[in-house]
Write a structure and sequence with these properties.
Oligomer: single chain
Radius of gyration: 23 Å
Strand order of the largest sheet: 3-2-1-4-5
Shape: globular
CATH architecture of the largest domain: Orthogonal Bundle
Length: about 450
């Protein structure tokens, strides 16, 4: 019997249980389908990174005398066509637990069943698949800490090797891999399984020990930058957790907690799929919000006059990535200083972030907006100036991304330059008065509290 391995968010050969299952057949066709429903809304950075990752996977297959079979169109149609082209009786996948992916896979499964082809789900993009960890009553966790405890107690399987001795199949009907095109001079990270492995080993060797202290400092390279590799499955969290288990530093413990947050948000979205667009705490939908206007445009363009906010938004445009601490600062500014609903910011992030994971992105935004799980109290309104001074004390981050502030005099405060300095370097005045907007945000919050 022959099979199809349908790659999606698992663009790697090692530690891929679904691929091992597929390769146990007499022959396997490695397949990826460019789905217009996912490709269309994606911004140019996400498309470019995905293309580069697919090319890397194809190169790995070339080393094994194979190639990635690429199709473009509705997966319901294209997966069935690919299976028919090689006479496959099974299509293997890693389970997708997102709202769209779950429905898509059900539709594909039904279409395959009409042709007597089985859709086989093995593993997922997570160490513990969403829905597996529940409280004693069998209900999903609503708070992170008890989830993380139960998640760790549940445990996960160890990594598995890449398949060997595979009879790779080819078939007619494939389309060419698109060229990775990026807007302007955007600087994307290197894509692919090998790049993910190198970046991870570098982090373990050079930065994990100090991660606890350095992860909130955007001006230094203190994070792992592994989020994009996890997003596209160029590495599995099992692999990372196995490596972390051998370490005893506080940095390794904190990093494992960050992986648990990723899995918690995936679990929340699995149980509450509507929260990809709607409020987890619906009372916040009744708050008074402002429609996006020129201030929203200034936020997107990094021209708010608040240096750390502008640095983050410009870093996003330049690299397709933003430091996590700064993500929280810019999100708070949009929701609580500009009074714009979180969905507008979340949509902008998903368009530009190459690591834009639906569960982590949407629920990270809801956390900041006060309407999500473990939400920061709504009255916790980040002051962008003091946040900048706290986490970027020497101004290295804002001077790098807000290049005009690099021209300030040596003694000037890059987080709050005076009016004369702003005019001299052509940097805008603040578009709002933070203290005034904080009071306004709390007034609106009190209105929904009062019912």
């Amino acid at each position: 019997m022959t099979s199809v391995m349908w790659f999606r968010r698992d663009l790697r050969l090692a530690d891929n249980p679904a691929l091992l299952e597929a390769c146990a057949e007499d022959g396997v066709l490695p397949l990826f389908v460019i789905d217009p429903r996912l490709w269309g809304p994606a911004g140019a950075p996400r498309r470019a990174y995905l293309t580069a990752s697919l090319r890397s996977l194809d190169a790995s297959l070339h080393q094994r005398k194979a190639r990635l079979h690429l199709r473009r169109g509705d997966p319901v149609t294209e997966v069935a066509r690919a299976a028919r082209a090689v006479g496959a009786t099974r299509v293997h996948i890693a389970a997708d637990h997102g709202p769209y992916g779950t429905q898509r896979d059900q539709d594909v499964e039904a279409a395959l069943a009409e042709r007597d082809v089985e859709l086989v789900r093995t593993g997922s993009a997570y160490a513990v698949a969403p829905g597996r960890v529940t409280n004693r009553a069998g209900e999903p966790f609503k708070v992170f800490t008890p989830f993380a405890r139960a998640w760790a107690e549940h445990g996960w399987r160890g990594p598995v090797d890449a398949p060997r001795g595979v009879n790779w199949l080819d078939a007619a009907g494939a389309v060419d891999l698109p060229e990775p095109r990026t807007p302007g001079a955007i600087d994307l990270p290197e894509a692919g399984e090998a790049a993910a492995g190198r970046r991870w080993r570098e982090f373990l060797d050079e930065r994990v020990a100090a991660y606890d202290d350095d992860r909130d400092k955007p001006g230094i390279d203190g994070t792992s930058r592994m989020s994009v590799h996890l997003k596209w499955g160029e590495i599995h969290p099992r692999t990372m957790l196995a490596d972390l288990a051998r370490l005893r530093s506080s940095g390794a413990t904190t990093y494992r907690k960050e992986l648990a947050w990723r899995e918690f948000y995936a679990d929340v979205l699995f149980h509450r799929p509507a929260t990809a667009r709607e409020y987890l705490r619906p009372e916040y939908a009744g708050m008074e919000y402002d429609a996006p206007d020129g201030a929203f445009d200034a936020w997107r363009d990094g021209r708010t006059g608040f240096p750390v906010v502008d640095a983050g938004m410009r870093q996003l445009r330049a690299t397709g990535w933003m430091h996590n601490r700064v993500r929280m600062i810019v999100a708070s500014f949009l929701v609580k200083d500009l009074h714009v609903e979180w969905q507008h910011g979340a949509r902008h992030f998903l368009r530009w972030l190459v690591d834009g994971d639906l569960a982590s992105n949407q629920h990270g935004w809801q956390w900041v907006a006060g309407c999500g799980t473990d939400a920061a109290p709504y009255f916790r309104v980040f002051n962008p100036t003091t946040q900048g001074r706290k986490f970027d004390p020497d101004g290295a981050y804002v001077r790098r991304w807000v290049t005009e502030l690099g021209e300030l005099d040596a003694g000037a405060d890059p987080h709050d330059p005076d009016e004369e300095s702003r005019q001299r370097v052509d940097y805008p005045a603040p578009i709002v008065d933070h203290a005034e907007e904080r009071r306004e945000a709390l007034r609106r919050w009190e209105q929904i509290r009062a019912g």
